[in-house]
Inverse folding.
């Protein structure tokens, strides 16, 4: 295959051979993309699709946010307001956040990081993308037809008996997309078990791979329950049969039990990949081995498992028994322990590191701050008396946006900037990227921090006419949203520019140790020029105690060689 | 010898087969939770309305139910035999077992259709004219319709998969040995059978005594 | 490929056939017992027999125990997670 025979050479020592086409130039027609089974191309197909949905969901909530500038309901009608926040929720949860990191970076980098040629079932992988698109078509059809007004949670009996909007179409979209995520999870688990390169033992896996593995486990164990719950709800709505209908003896709380059995772990589907990704970025830009690698792995696993035991904290005021409330409250405190372990370990990784503030690192540091605020306010909400006080207020809205947007979206952008040179082979404009990262952090806090205060003061969520004393907070929040919107648009500009006009990146612009950096940028279709062999643990930066600073040493100890 | 059964990114058939079997077991695990949501709901309502569930269970047709159980179990036997035969290289026998499996599956669906028709004539679809007065009886029947319907959908997919085995091995019976498809199909088929074995006591045996 | 001659059909189907006979006996038994008045025990007995049938199908037809450890893990994890759903949902229903 490769004409290079000296197996002692590191990839970076090799002359740049441009003879073999990379995955982007392997086929140039639209058809070659739509029938691609290459995991890297499928990752980009997802990236393209979820970007569209990200902007659909953002526009929906931007209109609602503008409406909230004044206490009166003056911009949109009540119905439209409800439909817009429902659209925002459904699109952002199922068509952006759930697939965000796993389906894009997971697809692209999981095989690369374990030294595999592709995922275990490439055609199944493409099928997942098509299922996602079919589900997306249902959702778009639902929006075009007139939208849905139930809130993203589809609570019965409103959704199944009373709503006059397109509930069935929206539920069908989510149902089908659910199978896309199940199949992706299945594929990732099989890949991690079956296709690791020689020498890649479980405790040599990069933490991003571990996070993909645990996320996939949550996907395949939780999503089927969501699918059947939405199926039952839709069956009740379409065929008028009693399943959750309280007027015929049904129990609406049963719907909530089943729904949150998926939807609480779904939060971990969003945040676990972010945690793995952030570990990669911190270790690279602090030039330091991840502190407590094994503890990080166990914490990921513990979060994935315990995350299934806490769903009842969404139902504290819904009529759940006091005993169940106690059980779920206690278990919710437990799940904070492994999350805290991760925060402490990231901090310890940074401690005495030789930190440089490239844009991925700025996004990652933003993540650390915002995730900590989001996680700690989660503890407030796990405490039953406080939860009763702030249920269905903006406090809850602010809490989960700190986790999902401050956490997951920050991490998504960290990953985008960290891996962009590998994906495209080009470097973006660093100054613009740093500016966007800082702007995103400030815009985010300006948007959501006031929501903690007004929520605690009693501003309920999902209302668009409100008492005038809350106006100052809403004005701050809307102003922050405008800043945030600008910060999201900037990368679209400079990243697209860089894809065509940016400087060539080289194989390893960050001098990182991971296997994905030991091949061309962009990688060839089969990922490596020769099957890689793994010779070291991940993250062997700065292994000697004494010596010159890291920027004088070049590459430390890479994880393996492709040759 | 190895032929078209080997697919990217695998380099040997054994590893590929192992991965396929692993993946189908994982998929069946997701199916356990898919049906599990309904089993949990059934359990919750049976706990809330024990008497109504017994009265409602009395109205199901045990003749159709038990005959269909036997049909499915026999089909599973043929499926198991066909899979073992394919792996052992007894292709002629395997290609007798697969159609037998598919035909038994279709018999199940036909009987199920007659049963649904009977149920509808007795107005047992919840709605106007539903004969049972107890609160909760209509919920039992709602779950009867939804769960047996979803089971029938799964069985239909299974019949399609078995027919595919027969068609794909038409020119090249050797494929049956190299591909993991017979084993994967068999595992799925047996799983659909397992679901029915659990549905049978829940819907047909409740309230008989 | 292998040196051994293929087994005869009779050898091949012996185990599945015995399993089928056992399953048919269990179906007849559970249907008959359903008509015997045992109160709440009717449910318990019918579910136990269903469990036995499932065990026969999983062990003999699906050959689970012949699989690798990771296959057994994949097969049991779904059932394991379902018990979480049952236990925690019933922590509510049993204490309302």
């Amino acid at each position: 295959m490769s004409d290079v025979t000296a197996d002692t050479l590191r990839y970076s020592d090799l002359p740049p051979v441009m003879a073999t086409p990379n995955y982007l130039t392997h086929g140039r027609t639209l058809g070659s993309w739509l029938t691609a089974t290459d995991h890297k191309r499928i990752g980009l197909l997802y990236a393209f699709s979820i970007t569209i949905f990200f902007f659909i969901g953002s526009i929906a909530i931007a209109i609602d946010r503008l409406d909230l500038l004044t206490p009166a309901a003056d911009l949109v009608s009540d119905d439209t307001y409800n439909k817009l926040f429902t659209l925002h929720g459904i699109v952002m949860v199922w068509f952006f956040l759930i697939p965000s990191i796993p389906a894009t970076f997971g697809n692209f980098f999981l095989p690369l990081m374990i030294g595999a040629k592709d995922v275990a079932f490439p055609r199944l992988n493409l099928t997942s993308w098509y299922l996602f698109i079919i589900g997306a078509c249902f959702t778009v059809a639902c929006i075009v037809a007139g939208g849905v007004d139930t809130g993203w949670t589809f609570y019965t009996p409103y959704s199944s008996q009373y709503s006059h909007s397109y509930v069935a179409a929206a539920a069908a979209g989510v149902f089908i997309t659910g199978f896309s995520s199940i199949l992706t999870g299945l594929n990732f688990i099989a890949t991690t078990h079956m296709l690791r390169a020689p020498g890649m033992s479980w405790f040599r896996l990069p933490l991003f791979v571990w996070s993909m593995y645990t996320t996939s486990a949550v996907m395949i164990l939780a999503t089927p329950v969501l699918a059947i719950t939405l199926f039952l709800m839709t069956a009740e709505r379409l065929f008028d049969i009693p399943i959750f209908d309280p007027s015929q003896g049904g129990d609406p709380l049963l719907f909530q039990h089943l729904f949150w059995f998926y939807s609480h772990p779904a939060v971990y589907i969003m945040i676990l990949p972010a945690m793995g990704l952030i570990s990669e970025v911190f270790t690279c830009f602090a030039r330091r081995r991840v502190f407590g690698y094994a503890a990080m792995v166990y914490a990921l696993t513990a979060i994935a498992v315990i995350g299934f035991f806490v769903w009842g904290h969404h139902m504290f005021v819904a009529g759940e028994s006091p005993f169940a409330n106690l059980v779920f409250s206690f278990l919710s405190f437990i799940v904070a322990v492994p999350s805290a372990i991760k925060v402490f370990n990231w901090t310890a990784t940074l401690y005495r590191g030789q930190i440089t503030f490239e844009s991925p690192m700025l996004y990652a540091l933003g993540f650390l701050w915002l995730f900590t605020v989001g996680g700690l306010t989660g503890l407030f909400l796990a405490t039953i008396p406080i939860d009763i006080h702030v249920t269905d207020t903006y406090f809850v809205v602010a809490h989960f946006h700190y986790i999902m947007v401050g956490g997951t979206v920050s991490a998504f952008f960290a990953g985008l900037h960290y891996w962009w040179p590998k994906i495209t082979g080009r470097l973006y404009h660093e100054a613009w990227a740093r500016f966007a990262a800082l702007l995103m952090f400030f815009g985010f806090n300006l948007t959501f921090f006031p929501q903690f205060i007004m929520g605690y003061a009693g501003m309920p969520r999902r209302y668009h006419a409100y008492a005038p004393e809350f106006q100052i907070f809403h004005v701050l929040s809307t102003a922050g949203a405008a800043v945030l919107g600008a910060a999201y648009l900037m990368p679209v500009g400079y990243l697209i520019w860089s894809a065509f006009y940016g400087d060539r990146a080289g194989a390893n612009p960050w001098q990182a140790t991971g296997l994905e950096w030991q091949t061309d940028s962009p990688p060839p279709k089969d990922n490596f020029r020769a099957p890689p062999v793994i010779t070291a643990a991940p993250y062997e930066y700065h292994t000697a105690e004494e010596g010159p600073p890291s920027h004088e040493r070049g590459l430390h100890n890479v994880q393996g060689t492709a040759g | 010898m190895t032929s078209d059964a080997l697919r990217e990114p695998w380099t040997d058939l054994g590893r590929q087969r192992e991965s396929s079997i692993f993946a189908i077991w994982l998929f069946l695990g997701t199916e356990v939770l898919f049906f599990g949501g309904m089993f949990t709901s059934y359990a919750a309502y049976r706990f809330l309305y024990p008497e109504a569930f017994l009265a409602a269970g009395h109205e199901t047709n045990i003749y159709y139910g038990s005959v269909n159980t036997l049909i499915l179990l026999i089909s599973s036997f043929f499926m198991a035999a066909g899979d073992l035969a394919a792996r052992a290289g007894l292709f002629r026998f395997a290609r007798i077992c697969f159609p037998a499996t598919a035909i038994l599956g279709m018999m199940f669906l036909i009987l199920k259709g007659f049963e649904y028709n009977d149920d509808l004539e007795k107005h047992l679809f919840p709605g106007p004219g539903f004969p049972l007065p107890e609160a909760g009886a209509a919920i039992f029947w709602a779950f009867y319709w939804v769960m047996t319907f979803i089971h029938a959908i799964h069985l239909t997919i299974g019949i399609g998969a078995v027919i595919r085995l027969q068609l794909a091995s038409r020119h090249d019976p050797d494929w049956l040995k190299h591909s993991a498809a017979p084993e994967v199909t068999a595992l799925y088929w047996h799983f659909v059978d397992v679901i029915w074995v659990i549905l049978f006591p829940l819907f047909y045996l409740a309230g008989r005594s | 490929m292998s040196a051994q001659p293929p087994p005869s059909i009779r050898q091949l189907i012996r185990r599945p056939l015995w399993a089928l006979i056992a399953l048919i006996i269990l179906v007849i038994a559970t249907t008959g017992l359903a008509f015997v008045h045992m109160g709440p025990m009717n449910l318990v007995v019918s579910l136990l027999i269903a469990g036995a049938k499932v065990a026969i199908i999983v062990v003999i037809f699906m050959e689970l125990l012949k699989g690798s450890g990771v296959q057994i893990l994949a097969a049991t994890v779904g059932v394991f997670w379902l018990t979480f759903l049952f236990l925690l949902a019933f922590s509510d229903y049993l204490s309302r």
